[in-house]
Amino acid sequence: MSLEVELAAVVTAVTAGTPRVLMVGEPGSAVLPTGRLDPARDRTLELALRCEVRERTGLDLGYVEQLYTFGNRDRHPDERTAGTRRLAVAYLALLREAAPAAGSGAAWRGWYDHFPWEDWRAGRPEVLDAAILPGLDAWARAAGDRAGALVRRERVGICFGLGAPWDGERVLDRYELLFEAGLAGDPRLGAQLGLDHRRILASALGRLRGKLRYRPVVFELLPRTFTLLDLQATVEALAGRQLRKQNFRRLVEGRGLVAGTGRFAGGRVGGPAELFRFRREALRERPAPGVGLPWLRTHG
After folding, report:
1. Is the pLDDT of residue 295 over 60?
2. Which structural domain range is residue 27 located in?
3. Rounded distance, CA 151 to CA 148, Å?
4. How many CB atoms lie within 10 A of CB 21?
5. Cβ proximity of 232 and 243 under 8 Å
6. Which of 22, 67, 116, 124 could staple 11 via S-S, CB 3.0–4.6 A?
7. Number of domains present in the structure of the chain
8. pLDDT at site 300
9. What average pLDDT does this structure show over 204-216?
10. What kind and span of H or E run contains 246?
C-alpha cells in the first residue's frame, strides 16, 4: 500500500457576527480546500497549503498554523479502491472574508450549520433536548451492563455539561461521542461534510476557542481599526456564548490589548463609537495576551 499526504485548510472568517468556513463542493458533500503534497516540488507543508488554497479558491491566506494530522485507516475511499493510505495534515487559517474566485466551486458556510449544539448565544440550543440528549441516553442504556452504562453516562455528562460545567473547548469530544453513538448523521444535528472533514472542522473550532484565552488570534479576523462592539461580537461568535459587555471591555482595555485611535465609526445607533486598534506591544508585555473568556453569560 502506498502513502500520500494531503493538506487540508480550515479557512475561517467572522462576518456580521457569523463564524464562517470556506468549503468546496455542494452542501451535504462539501469538503475543505484540500490538495496533495508533492514531495519533489513543495519545500514546506505550509507553502504548499498556501499555494493550493490560492489555486483552488483564488484567496491568499494570512495567519496559518498547523492543526493536527488525521490518518485513521479508511478515512478516504481511495484506500480501498486504489490501495493508497491517505494522511491529511490540517491547518487553521484566519482571514477576513473575501469572495472566492468565480467558477472555483468554493463558498463560505456557517460553522454552526455543522455543529448547531455549539452556539449558545441565543440560549440553550433546542437540538440538545430534542435529539442529542435523548439519543445519548438511549445509547448509554444500550451498553449491555450497568458498569458500561455508567461509563457512557459519565462521558455524556462531561462532554455535554450534565452535572459539570459546559466546556466550550470540548468540540471534538462532543462530535466524536455523537459519532460513536451513531447520531452524527442525524439531519437535525447539522449539515454533513465529505470524508472526515467534519471531524477536522470540530478540531479546529475547539483549538480556536482555546487560543482565544492566551493568544490574540481574534484580531486576525478584524479590520485594522474596529469598535469594541465589533471585537466583542467576533469573540462571542467564536465562543458560541454571550459575554458581559462592561466586563469584557474592562478586560481587553486592562490587559492593554487595544488602544483608541481618536476616530469614530459613523452610522451607530446612540452616537458614533470610537475606533480601536490592536496594540502589538502587548505581545512583548504579556506571556499570554489573549482576550480571555471570563464572565460568560449563562443560559438555562
Report:
1. no
2. 2-113
3. 5
4. 24
5. yes
6. 22
7. 3
8. 41
9. 94
10. helix 245-254
Residue 177 lies inside a defined structural domain of this protein: yes
Task: Tell me how far apart the alpha carbons of residues 168 and 237 are, in angstroms, rounded to a whole number.
Answer: 12
Answer yes or no: do 134 and 109 share one domain: no
Residues 264, 174, single domain; the answer is: no
CA distance 55 to 38: 15
Strands 106-110, 84-94: pairing kind: unpaired
Residue 96, φ and ψ in degrees, nearest 5: -80, 140
CB atoms within 10 A of CB 164: 11
Q: State residue 135's pLDDT score.
A: 98
Same domain, 20 and 107: yes
| CATH at 76 | 3.90.79.10
- d(C-alpha 49, C-alpha 88), whole Å: 11
Tens of pLDDT along 97-142? Answer: 999 999 999 999 999 999 999 999 999 999 999 999 999 999 999 9
Return the CATH number at 277. Answer: 1.10.10.10
